[in-house]
Automatic annotation (TrEMBL):
GO terms for molecular function: cyclic-guanylate-specific phosphodiesterase activity. CDD domains: EAL. This is Diguanylate phosphodiesterase. InterPro entries: Cyclic-di-GMP_PDE-like, EAL_dom, EAL_sf. Residues 86-306 form the EAL domain.
Amino acid sequence: MRCHNCAMGELEIEVKFTNNDQQTWIEQVYHYLTFHYQVKRIENILVVSEDALRDLHDFCKDHMDVNEVFFRIGSQTWKPILESVEIMNAHWIDDVIKNKQVISYYQPIISSDKQVYAYELLARFIGKNGQLIFPNEIFSAARTRGRLYALDRLCRMTAVKHAVRLQNVKAFINFIPTSIYSPEHCLKSTIMLAQQLNLKQEMLVFEVVETDKVDDVEHLKTILNYYKSKGFSYALDDVGEGFNTESLLKELTPPRYMKLDMKYVRGGVSKSDEKQQIASRLLEVANDLGSIPLAEGVETKMILSG
């Protein structure tokens, strides 16, 4: 069964009216919308399509107190109805996902003896004009429209396909923990594709991105245990100062790899005692856990004398 959250169906938006004194308005709004759209109602909450939301947005702006009308998609937090225009303006992300306008770039991971140890497969997105769309813009739009699940799945599947070109090196594939509701459903297609392409389990490393933003530790443990049960290893990304996972790491199966955040590598690390202390701490923790430490964003070489 395909994961419901990864599918690209029509948006369903909940709209909540918080002023119980406006029952007459709510009744009239509901009556009007049902003549033009499919609408569900649960007390003061209407479940509407995106087209209905456009009408409702304009009506509320003209005839109601917009501070008393809120909307949300899925499990997102409630937001003022006027902000729903952001959802409509981000509709272009649906085409990016449906048309699979994504490719993978190969970022080499180099060992200390200057050999290519692995490649991180980075998702890059192509606009209709053929130009690249920055990942931050893509993921921001996907979050706004509740499409993060579908986008993350597309990126994972694309990366697995690109991993076929690699030989005798590992492939690091990113995933966002909050984009996965149930590992058994959301990750099943990814695992099946890897098996169909005859990719060995030890070749693939699934990398937890936005590690420093993990709130639901139990959910993350479920995901990582699922990957482990299928024979894959995992990496933690963006390790650095203020990283809350010294306690988190005690609850997880030790990661095979730990990545030092790029901001502690670039920008004069050779002259910064603070950054060097953070890097040293990563090495210490990684050694204690038996993990392999990685530094992200190394672009210069320093020759030490003496």
